[in-house]
Specification:
9 helices, 296 residues, alpha+beta
């Protein structure tokens, strides 16, 4: 996926675990999904190893080690708990984590039907509400909880590059509308910053009677404008459930427009960058852009 990607595989993980946490050396190591900058490997039945695939993601690990315990104590939905923190070794340059395994299924973009989404909407709304209430003392700014105006050029270039896949003219008009939306005027609040389908776990892959069973990947978390967490509205929810989420949260027009702007920016840039190298992210991003376009 990246020119500077590190050679991370199960063999490396076994070696790191054996060297630094010998009590777990005999546990099986199973590759899981790799994200954009971090890889996950299941360790035994109850643990997960999370480690960067590019050196620039090392700060993600440092951040999660510091803040996952703080956030986990305040959220009702399960998030990974830090069990151990690995350090760089002669053959691997980054810190890494051993986390708790969370059961559940990542929803396939577009697969959740409108019927039976009430529990999922309620859980997402409860998550976002709880995040806003967490003490922000000493918390850093979130990766996506500031302004997206600095992404204007990248978003326009990316939307043009994927015009064969999405309605670029319409999305550019919606992007302009988002740029014109008034900035967040409230106090900075905690945000997750990356509520895509791959970072959410559900009890039922169809979204039926179950809701969220877990939330993953807090590397983009921090404080700022809560609009960025409305990514969830377009990444996993169908139109009716999206409207229900907005009503439950009481989202005003300006915040909704900024949330839609974050969805356009994140999805367009990711789709253009990963369309040939990371199919899962490309599918998720294209789905989000189509949902944005179709929901106008």
């Amino acid at each position: 996926m990246h020119d500077d990607q590190l050679p991370v595989d199960a063999k490396l993980v076994r070696r790191l675990v054996a060297e630094q946490f010998p009590a777990w050396a005999r546990l099986p190591v199973t590759p899981l999904a790799t994200g954009t900058v971090n890889a996950m490997f299941r360790l035994g039945d109850q643990m997960v190893v999370r480690l960067p695939v590019v050196e620039r993601a090392a700060d993600d690990i440092v951040f999660e080690r510091r803040w996952l315990p703080v956030l986990g104590a305040e959220l009702a939905v399960p998030i990974p708990r830090v069990l151990a923190a690995g350090v760089p070794s002669p053959d691997y340059p980054c810190p890494w984590l051993v986390l708790t395994w969370l059961p559940g299924i990542t929803p396939t973009p577009g697969a959740i039907e409108a019927a039976g989404t009430s529990a999922l909407v309620a859980d997402v709304a409860a998550l976002l509400t709880a995040l806003r209430r967490i003490d922000t003392t000493d918390a850093p700014p979130g990766y996506r909880s500031g302004s997206f105006h600095g992404l204007d050029s990248a978003a326009r270039t990316s939307l043009t590059a994927v015009s064969d896949l999405v309605d670029t003219p319409l999305l550019l008009r919606l992007w302009d509308d988002a740029l014109d939306a008034p900035a967040w005027s409230g106090p900075p609040v905690w945000t997750h910053g990356d509520l895509l389908s791959g970072n959410l776990l559900v009890h039922d892959p169809g979204g039926g009677p179950g809701g969220l069973s877990g939330v993953l990947d807090f590397a983009c978390a921090g404080v700022g404008d809560p609009a960025c967490d409305l990514l969830a509205a377009w990444s996993i929810l169908p139109a009716d459930a999206r409207a229900e989420l907005r009503d439950v949260l009481g989202v005003d027009d300006h915040t909704w427009r900024r949330g839609r702007g974050w969805a356009i920016a994140q999805a367009s840039i990711a789709l253009a960058y990963y369309r040939d190298t990371f199919p899962q992210m490309a599918v998720t991003s294209a789905h989000m852009l189509r949902e944005v376009a179709e929901s106008v």
